[in-house]
Amino acid sequence: MYLTADFLKRGFRPGGRHGLSSTESRDPIGLAVAGLNRLARSEVIDRLGLRRQAEQAVFTVTRNGFRTATAAGRQFARLGKRGAPGTHPAATRTSGLFDLTPTEDEQMLVDVVGEFAAEVVRPAAAEADAACAAPEALLRASLEIGLPILGVPEALGGISEDRSAMAGTLVAEALARGDMGLAVAALAPGSVATALGLWGTDAQQQTYLPAFTGDDVPAAALALTEPTVLFDPLSPATTARRDGDGYVLDGLKSAVVRGAEAELFVVGAQLDGRPVLFLVESSTEGLSVEADPSMGVRAASLTRLGLTGVRVPADAVLGDTDGTAYAECVRLSRLAWCALALGTGQAVLDYVTAYVNEREAFGEPISHRQAVAFMVADIAIELQAMRLVTYKAASRAARGEDFAREVALARSLCAEKGMRIGLDGVQLLGGHGFVKEHPVERWYRDLRAVGIMEGTVLV
């Protein structure tokens, strides 16, 4: 991925449009880190602490369950030419060499997101998990580092010149080192914006993307997963039927991120025997949202989205009607979950390494015991294998090449080994691994989602 030169020159400034400033003269990385440091000093974390009562109220509602209409949402101005092709990012240029080293631009972005994850996300993770909600201040802060426009082409107000699969993978990994649930909550709007950038028509892009590139970024969500046994994401039970000059959608979606506040959904449904993506505004009649609290990824405020006779116009189809865009959406979502598994797995490794070196038994650190040392080494080995296959899949996706095989291998490895890393992390802490005083039990719960979640976020 290549970030625009203008974006790099301007850097990040808290409080502005995506934190961009044209007055700074330092180097890009210095600008980014300096902006993030100012953000951390602006009492963001302190403001998160003031939200305890509000978060507790959200937790009570979520725990007890709720069912209501979706958020009223804004009125999106209909712009652009109906039926005209949109502006889509080009495939990333490559030298043909097998090199997974991040570019200078990608590394700068990872450095900024990594500091954000360490200084803002990690301290807020425990309370967000308990509250089943991401703090509003943290979500606002995530806008300062440009997450919603990461996959949007420069011509449409975004920051990318080429396809952003590689950069998106690196960003998701860095965010998940802070907390997977908060990472999912922060990435959800950008996933919808990226989908619009990849498959949207001119009218769809001109209608919806200005909201994501402006100051008041809407909550938005992908809705592909369904609460059915042996769910196949490529064969959804949700149906779409032609009706006059539009479509009528019926079905039930689960694991919808921040569904109660989302203003725009990308819904997967079966149309004439093929899976198709539809854009559905939250103000559309027939939508309802219900709490769907889960074992892990709780900070993402997961919900169920009900669709009963939901009527959408003919131009609500996102991409094609032959299932090609839908299949790519599923694969890019699986790639995102692999990246999230990498970040959370790395957090586990970092934490247990320090723990076993400091924890003493029989007069010496427990890391001196071969069984402990080998278990930590196994985590590091499996994590590196997961990273290599995930990066390879992301690299092929960014180049516009077929990556179905690579992402299938990455998902299989990350789902299996990710859960094992979480389990071993809990085991290495002994009794401490079972209590909430240490974050490893939360990471274990989150890692179990990797093999289950479908179409929640994408890169």
Ordered list of secondary-structure elements with their pairings:
Elements: H1 5-10, H2 28-41, H3 44-49, H4 52-64, E1 67-69, H5 104-131, H6 136-143, H7 165-176, H8 180-199, H9 202-213, E2 220-223, E3 239-243, E4 246-257, E5 264-271, E6 274-281, E7 287-291, E8 302-313, E9 317-318, H10 324-358, E10 360-361, E11 364-365, H11 370-398, H12 404-428, H13 440-447
Parallel strand pairs: 2-5, 3-5
Antiparallel strand pairs: 1-7, 3-4, 4-8, 5-6, 6-9, 7-8, 10-11
Helix pairs in contact: 2-5, 4-5, 5-7, 7-10, 8-9, 8-10, 10-11, 10-12, 10-13, 11-12, 12-13
Structure description:
The chain is of the alpha+beta class and 459 residues long. It has three domains: 208 residues, Butyryl-Coa Dehydrogenase, subunit A, domain 1 (Orthogonal Bundle); 96 residues, Butyryl-CoA Dehydrogenase, subunit A, domain 2; 118 residues, Butyryl-CoA Dehydrogenase, subunit A, domain 3, CATH 1.20.140. Helix content is 47%, strand content 14%. It has 13 helices and eleven strands. Strands 1, 2, 3, 4, 5, 6, 7, 8 and 9 form a nine-stranded mixed β-sheet that branches. Strands 10-11 form a two-stranded antiparallel ribbon. Strand 10 and strand 11 form a beta hairpin.
Q: What does this entry show, briefly?
A:
This protein is an alpha+beta fold. The protein contains 13 helices and eleven strands.
By DSSP, the count of extended strands is 11
Cα distance spanning the termini: 12 Å
Low-confidence stretches: 1-42, 44-64
Bulk shape: globular
> Quick one: CATH class of the largest domain?
Mainly Alpha
Strand residues, percent: 5-15%
Fourth-level CATH superfamily of the largest domain: Acyl-CoA dehydrogenase/oxidase, N-terminal domain
Question: Fraction of residues in helices?
Answer: 40-55%
Q: Give Rg in angstroms.
A: 21 Å
Mean pLDDT: 81
